[in-house]
Amino acid sequence: MTKVCVIFGTESGGSERHAKRLSKAWTGVDFDASKDFMSGDAAAKKGLGALAAAYDFLVVVTSSYGDGDPPSNYTTFLTALYAAEDKPLAGCQHCVLGFGSTDYETFQNCPRLTDKLLGECGSTRALQRVEVDENDTVGGDKSLDQWAKDVVAAFAKKASSDVCAWTSPHSEVFDKKDELLSAGGGGGAMMAPVIVVALAAVGFGYWKMTQSAE
Predict the structure, then answer these.
(1) More confident call, 198 vs 120
(2) Are residues 120 and 92 in the same domain?
(3) What distance in Å separates the CA atoms of residue 19 and residue 116, rounded to the nearest whole number?
(4) How far is C-alpha 114 from the geometric centre of its chain's CA atoms?
(5) Are residues 73 and 40 in the same domain?
(6) Cys-Cys crosslink for 40: which of 74, 87, 114, 115, Cβ 3.0 to 4.6 Å?
């Protein structure tokens, strides 16, 4: 049985809904498969090594958020990929489906980084990454329908080597390694400036009080 884990990253729920809808095309095909759905954070909590032990195929569906950042329920997964040592996903296969809008320069940053890092962690790229632009409704719908069919073919084929480099169809990325690792995957790096500002405000308030009392 082919064991599939669908990992999603989303702010509004769109990627999760698309993943579940498209996975319906995987039923009634000529191979035996089981599938689980989980957010990137849930996948990270399970652990990369545990994912490799439990699943044959990782299907990742995600968007980017803000300045090419991972969605809030996907941050720890991308951080785990950056922090991985050796090749914890060796023996796995993967494919990535990215969502976003070309109104933003960084709209596919998280999917691209994910595809790149999955390969570096030892997973085999079984399908070229698909990048969906929500501004192209007709083209996007066609791409999604074709992707759903191509994934089934990839399940059945079980590629022994990457079908392409992560740089296809595009290679421009904005690296997030230092930012994510310094934050510990949970946005901790953002807390320090806030605390400093808060303490400064308290100190200024105290100073004003002492000046008024003199």
Answers:
(1) 120
(2) yes
(3) 20
(4) 5
(5) yes
(6) 74
